Amino acid sequence: MVTPEPAKSLRPPGDATAASPAASVDQVDTRYLETLIGYNARRAALAVIGVFLPRMAAFGLKPVAFSVVSLIAHNPGITSRQLCAALNILPPNLVGLINSLAQRGLIERLPHPRDGRAMGLHLTEEGREVMAQAEKTASALEVEAAGRLSAAERQTLITLLRKVYLPD
Amino acid sequence: MVTPEPAKSLRPPGDATAASPAASVDQVDTRYLETLIGYNARRAALAVIGVFLPRMAAFGLKPVAFSVVSLIAHNPGITSRQLCAALNILPPNLVGLINSLAQRGLIERLPHPRDGRAMGLHLTEEGREVMAQAEKTASALEVEAAGRLSAAERQTLITLLRKVYLPD
DNA sequence: TATTGTTATACTCTATAACTATA
DNA sequence: TATAGTTATAGAGTATAACAATA
Prior knowledge:
2 copies of one chain form a homodimer.
Chain A: H1 37-56, H2 63-74, H3 80-87, H4 91-103, E1 107-111, E2 119-123, H5 125-145, H6 151-165
Antiparallel strand pairs in A: 1-2
Helix pairs in contact in A: 1-5, 2-5
The structure holds a DNA duplex.
């Protein structure tokens, strides 16, 4: 018998890097990747978005669109440039989104009170109604997406994540 | 004077939703979005990737490629299908990546010991050398990316993130 | 019949350069 | 000159359908 028995899923605590050339893998060892914040943050974000997408499809809002409309709701008169800075979006990529939101009647562009180049963004009455429901859904969805976390753990997680991506 | 004074950055604790039609925004209020785990996780992941990309460009490895090579390093003989399942990648999107890694001489495909359809993936000697440096860089980069977090906080963050995206 | 790896392809997301109008 | 918004376009990332070889 040249072929060894299938490797047991339990590997030495050190590592499994040294193995025979023709080895096969039973249980995939992801322990190293799981020591990296970037890896875990990305996996967690994609998992939450996976729950977010089908639920928010009822409102026709994908994650970025939801963020944009939410910021307009809480910052009446915000400009495209301010949205881009706050959400790390590039201006050309926001144009189409703003257009479609305006066409759907969720937002409207009013002239900026002090800068003739800029447009202040505001929710329409329909936009306010849709967003009230959408934010309610998004907040409820949090519990479902992070079902194994207690309220205190959720707060801790958010605090730590903000420390990662916020300057200072 | 019809135009009101620019709104102060301090807003009432309740919210700033109600404001005059022609209002302009001084400081953008992102407090609602920051109550959402998905929003924070996505922002944090993008921030870490922003540090990761230029540093790992020296090895010619972007995040997904790094994850793939790392899993091959720690799981010699892993198959494409297993990589896809572990990293949530779709098979057609892995083909080109595996090809380029093989062409660069970092990995090699050996026949699977017990499944004639599958190929076991292994690092070459050069792949082992590159990956040793790459993982060293990635781990050092963690401290830089999460500079404001203590070691204990980093561990807490990782534990909480895993609870979000891992089943069970 | 089910699965591995693959091709072809489409769709979405993100990035860069350049233009206009206002400041 | 600098900035807000826009256009056009390119590139990267991600998705589905269908196929050949093997289980």
